[in-house]
Amino acid sequence: MRIDVWSDVVCPWCYIGKRRLEEALATSGEQAEVVYHSFQLDPEATSDDDRDLATRIGEKYGRGREWGLQANEHVTGVAREVGLEFNFDVAKSANTVDAHRLLHLARELGSSGEVPADTQARLKERLLKAYFTDGLPVGDHATLTQLATETGLAADRVTEVLASTTYEQEVAADQAQALAYGANGVPFFVIDEKYGVSGAQPTEVFQEALRQAAADRKPVTLITSGSTDDAVCGPDGCPI
Fold it and tell me: Which of 221, 201, 219 is nearest to 210 (CA)?
């Protein structure tokens, strides 16, 4: 089974949705390849915005800082239910394009066997934790280099990518693909290129989607007369 996930590393519901998907996979017993795709919630974001997160989101939605604080408190409680620690008071503004480019690097190197196949998934988790729990600036090149090398990527490869525009087209293509699927927000999950799940749905919704996808892949049950002379034609011809 393959699960494609569109998300951003500064999206709280993406982190929560990731945990709920993982819970569903663990309880279902299904083995899945999870591939992370880029989606920037705010491509215009900068790393030099000194406003706290509550102020930023309150102004973005025109509702003020107090509303932003209440929204953060609500999502922090939901995150706690799935074992996540959100520290919004230390979350730093960041443009996430470079983080997404490194996720593409991790995916490519994992596919080629240069690093373990789960490197992209581990880097994704580290980036999310860095932003939501540790209060690290995930738009900063030094921080990104540290996080990527912690995950197993070679420092010289990371430095090379960050100093260039490598994978920018892939990031843009991911975003375009999400929009083509009809996803105007994230997280967005596609299971076996057939079943879509929009948003950080309850674990039960993911479980049902996994069941349906697994059922589609089950082999056909053969019903015969029990005879060894069933009327079947094969590569060598047809028995008479």
Answer: 201
